[in-house]
Amino acid sequence: QVNLVESGGGLVQAGGSLRLSCEASGVIYSIKAMGWYRQATGKQRELVAEIAEGGKTNSAVSVKGRFTISRDDAESTVSLQIFSLKPEDTAVYYCHLDGSTGRGNVDIWGQGTQVTVSS
User: Fold this and answer.
1) pLDDT digit string, tens, across residues 12-51
2) Any idea which of 24-28, 40-44, 55-59, 95-99 has the lowest mean pLDDT?
3) Helix, strand, or coil (residue 23)
4) Among 19, 33, 81, 105, which lies 20 to 30 A Cα-Cα from 12?
């Protein structure tokens, strides 16, 4: 069984920075995409940034230039460095993995980590 464990959320002032990390436990044969989504109160979950096959990065327009995603397949980790945080970045951030294990294809979500940006 593969699980995702996130860390690094917290309370930060506007303009500050945070680094979110996610590690996948268990045996993963391949990773199709791994990245971060977020869900603010009362809103739908949305893509923040992910790294897909071939190293292609997909990210939301609202975070371009402020969020940097990196992935280490050998360690099955993905990190999100966030700069110049804004109050509208406040949300629960979820790690996501689309890949394959011994049980076949998997689509896994972490439990989420809260990021709160104060103005």
Assistant:
1) 999 999 999 999 998 888 899 999 999 999 999 999 999 9
2) 24-28
3) strand
4) 33
What are the residues facing 115 on neighbouring strands? 10, 91
Q: Classify each residue of 48-68 as buried b or exposed e, where b means 16 or more C-beta atoms within 10 Å of its C-beta.
A: bbbbeeeeeeebeeebeeebe
Q: Judge residue 8's burial from the number of C-beta atoms within 10 Å of its C-beta, 0-12 exposed, 13-18 middle, 19 or more buried.
A: middle
Q: Which of 89, 52, 91 is nearest to 71 (CA)?
A: 52
Q: Say whether pLDDT at 94 is over 90.
A: yes
Name the nearest CA neighbour of 95 among 81, 75, 113, 82.
Answer: 113
Query: Strand 10-13 to strand 113-118: parallel, antiparallel, or no bridges (unpaired)?
Result: parallel
What's the farthest any 2 CA atoms get from each other in the chain? 46
Rounded Cα distance between 56 and 104, Å, is: 23
Taking Cα atoms as reference points, which of 2, 10, 13 lies closest to residue 87?
13
